[in-house]
Amino acid sequence: MTTPKNNNNKMYTIIELEDNGQDFLELITDQKGVIIDTKPFQKEVWAGGVIPLDFGMLVVGEALPIHKPPHINFGFLKHNVKSIKTVENYDHN
Question: Of 22, 70, 72, 24, whose CA–CA distance to 51 is shortest?
Answer without folding.
Answer: 72
